[in-house]
Amino acid sequence: MDRSPELSPCIFCRIISGESTAKVFFRDDLVMAFRDIHPIASTHILIVPIRHIGSVNDLKEGDEALIGHMVLLARQLAEKEGLSERGYRLLINTGAHAGQTVLHLHLHLFGGPLARLALR
Ligand code: 5GP
Ligand code: ZN
Questions:
Q1: What is the pLDDT of residues 36-94, one digit of tens each?
Q2: Residue 11 to residues 15, 28, 55: CA-CA distances in angstroms?
Q3: Ligand number, closest to the Cα atom of 34
Q4: Catalytic site residue 104?
Q5: Which residue among 45, 92, 101 is best mutated to probe the pocket of ligand 1, counting the most ligand atoms within 8 A of its Cβ?
Q6: Which residues pair with 49 in a beta bridge?
Q7: Which of 39, 71, 104, 109 has CB 3.0 to 4.6 Å from 45, enough for a Cys bridge?
Q8: Per-domain residue ranges for the chain?
């Protein structure tokens, strides 16, 4: 049966709604954190808002708490993964020239020896 009209066109919205699966690290009313399907460092976690926001370009006044929450969650997950001391990289790609491939805002958390090279 063709169910495609019911499916969200956005892969991260599908993960958030449970239509697609991912290894989930955290979820609350504002954000969800899950493992990147093609990790490029030993830790590679994506932190995404529950609400569909295309990119940093689509943030509005009032989203300050959301962005702060995403960064503080990244710090918390980094600590849980044992990355705090040796360091980690946080990255948000915005638009084509930056290489953004999924048009739902996401913060990459990279950790491990390859984190300094991870610029996807
Ligand atoms: P961007 O290049 O937009 O900054 O990052 C998008 C990231 O999403 C990529 O690292 C890619 O591997 C990841 N990704 C794309 N599709 C999926 C998926 O279906 N599940 C998960 N967990 N990650 C995905
Ligand atoms: Zn989405």
A1: 999 999 999 999 999 999 999 999 999 999 999 999 999 999 999 999 999 999 999 99
A2: 6, 19, 14
A3: 1
A4: no
A5: 101
A6: 31
A7: 109
A8: 4-116
